[in-house]
Structures are given as structure tokens and as C-alpha cells.
Amino acid sequence: MLAGAAAGSLGALLGLGGGIFLVPVLDHVLGGNFSEAKAISLIAVIATSSFVTLASHGRRYLNLRLAMFLQMFTVVGATAANAVTLGDRPSRIVFAVTALVVAVIMMMKRHQRNVIHDTSIDVGQFGGRFHDDDTREDVAYRVRRLPLALFIAFVAGVLSTLIGVGGGVIIVPALNTWCGVPIRVAAGTSALMIGVTAVPAVVAGYAAGSLNQPLFAAAGVLGVLAGSRAGFWIGARARVKSLKTLLAAVLVVMAVRYFVMAF
Fold first, then answer.
1. Residue 85, class by beta-carbon neighbours within 10 Å (0-12 exposed, 13-18 middle, 19+ buried)?
2. Domain coordinates of the chain in residue numbers?
3. pTM
4. Which residues touch 67 (CB under 8 Å, ≥6 apart)?
5. Which letter, b or e, does each residue of 11-44 get, where b requires 16 or more Cβ atoms within 10 Å of its Cβ?
6. pLDDT at residue 128 above 80?
7. CA 143 – CA 134 distance, rounded (Å)
8. Do 204 and 218 form a contact (C-beta atoms < 8 A)?
């Protein structure tokens, strides 16, 4: 339940499914194996997505049109990855490398703000407008490099199935760093996407017999519910730079841990 609460907080704050935290706890601290940890984590990912997306704070930053467009590619990636089988050690290495690369990207771009203060501009088909808590004014943004965003969405779907992190760990920093999407909008949009992306992997995990700890899954979901509320409260008061730094710190800790476990 405590791990689920941490996962729910990360989901509300950063648009992550929480798998980047929940998988290591289930795998190492609670003594499970990676396949079981991944399957249980994906149940929590779906719960996080549901709670965050339905909350008023989450809907405020959700770009529904962009989410639905990218979602087609994440689902394709998640479904295609079901045909790939990785052992525990390769999965841990993929997990660690992914986390470390994303952390470096976030720290390099932590001062970057993707907002346009002239809200009368044409934001394009996938851009939008929202009230910025940092500047306390209405701002706009445009989505850049859409083909890159589609490729990233596909990769996020693949990683969701292979390592059980929900895909948000790739989608949020990539949209923010390379595609011009503000981090709060990227987080809100990712929160919807990760739940849908996790479904094929959950089905595959159930068919493979990995979901044999239903009490762990239920406890994780209850924790997510409480944690997401705390995440909303913190997120409304945190600055963008702080959110980016927090995301990078979480990723570095997880990367180091999984490199140690793999070798």
C-alpha cells in the first residue's frame, strides 16, 4: 500500500504510472520476481491513470486530442512487444538504461519553459491553452516535431510491456524536452495514455500466469488512491523546475539500483 501511495503521488505529480517506483519495491524489497512485479505494477498503472484523469486537476492539463492520437502508436507498440520475451536480467538493464537516459535529458532541459504568453496565437491542431500556476496567467503552447512524438509513443508502448513502467517515464520528458509541450500538460496527457497502454500487457501477464498475487495488486491500488490525492496537493504548489528535478532524481535512483541488481 505504501508503494502504491508513492506510485499514485508520482502519477499525479509527473504523469508516471508509478511503475518506475513500484516495480523495484515488489521485485527486490518484497521478494517477488520481475515478471510478477511487472504484472502487479501495471494494475497500479491503470488505477493511477483512472484516478488522475478523472480528477479535476488532471483534466485541467489534459490534451485529449494529442493523447488519443499518440495512443494509437503506444497501443501498437505495447501489443507488438507481447511477442518479445526478456529474462529478468535483460529487463533490469533495459529499465536502468531507460531511466538514466531520461534523467540526463530532464536535467539538461530543466530550465526550459514551453509556454507562449500570447494566447491569441494559432496553436495548431494539437496545441492548447491553460492557466499557468507558476506565472499565474493564461498561456499557450504548440506541439513541435509530431513525427518524433509518434515514434516516442511507440517506444513507450514497447517499454510498457517489457518492463512494466506504463510508458509515462518516456512520454513525459520526451514531449516536454523535444516536442514543446509544457511539463504539466505532458503529465496530464500521459496520465490518460498510460492506463490504456497498460491493458495489453496486463492481459498478456494474466495469460502467462504472472498475476498470481491479487492481494498485492489490490493493496497497491488502494495506495494509489491515497497517493494521487497527495500528489495533486503538492503539484499545485510546486514549480516546474522542481517537478523536473524530482523526476530526474527518481530516475537516477532507480537506474543505479537496477544496474547493481543486474550485475
1. exposed
2. 2-262
3. 0.76
4. 189, 192, 193
5. bbbbbbbbbbbbbbbbbbeeebebbbbbbbbbbb
6. yes
7. 20
8. no
